[in-house]
C-alpha cells in the first residue's frame, strides 16, 4: 500500500515563499556583516564540517529552531530574543524557506532566506571558513 501525500515538499516550499522574503545570493552578500543582520545556518552539523560555514553565521540545527526561538522554551537562545533581521540559509534553499515560515508563524517579523542556500553562496564566491565547533 502506498501512502498518499496530499501536499509535497515543493508545494510547502512554494507556500513558505509566499510568506518569507526570499533573497538572492547577491542580496545576501550585500547584507552580510551589516549591523542588525544575523545569518542563521540551519544545516546539520555534518554539512558544516564537510562544507564550511559563512563567517559570523549562527548555527541553529533545523530540528532545534522552534525550541531556540521560543523564549518560554528551556532551550531558548538569547540571539533569537533580539531585534535583528534573521537571514536563514540551508544547503539549497528548501529547508530555510520552511524554517523561515515557521519562525514567522511564531511571531518573528524580520526574516529572510537565501535562494539556493549555501550552494549558491559558494558558487557566487561568497566568503567561507572552516567550521570550528564551539
TrEMBL record:
Q: Which SUPFAM superfamilies match?
A: Rhodanese/Cell cycle control phosphatase
- Tell me the Pfam families matching this sequence: Rhodanese
Task: Spell out the SMART domains in the cross-references.
Answer: RHOD
Task: Give residue ranges for domain Rhodanese.
Answer: 33-130
Q: Offer an example of a GO molecular function term for this protein.
A: thiosulfate-cyanide sulfurtransferase activity
InterPro entries attached to this UniProt entry = Rhodanese-like_dom, Rhodanese-like_dom_sf
> What protein does this entry describe?
Rhodanese-like domain-containing protein
Q: Which organism is it from?
A: Oceanospirillum sediminis
Amino acid at each position: 500500500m502506498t501512502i498518499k501525500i496530499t501536499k509535497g515538499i515543493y508545494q510547502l516550499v512554494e507556500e513558505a515563499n509566499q510568506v518569507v522574503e526570499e533573497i538572492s545570493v547577491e542580496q545576501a552578500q550585500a547584507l552580510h556583516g551589516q549591523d542588525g543582520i544575523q545569518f542563521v545556518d540551519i544545516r546539520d552539523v555534518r554539512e558544516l564540517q564537510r562544507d564550511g560555514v559563512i563567517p559570523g553565521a549562527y548555527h541553529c540545527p533545523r530540528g532545534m529552531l522552534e525550541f531556540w526561538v521560543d523564549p518560554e522554551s528551556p532551550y531558548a537562545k538569547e540571539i533569537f530574543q533580539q531585534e535583528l533581521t534573521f537571514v536563514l540559509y540551508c544547503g539549497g534553499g528548501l529547508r530555510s524557506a520552511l524554517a523561515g515560515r515557521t519562525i514567522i508563524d511564531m511571531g518573528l517579523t524580520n526574516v529572510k532566506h537565501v535562494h539556493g542556500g549555501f550552494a549558491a553562496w559558494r558558487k557566487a564566491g561568497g566568503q567561507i571558513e572552516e567550521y570550528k565547533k564551539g
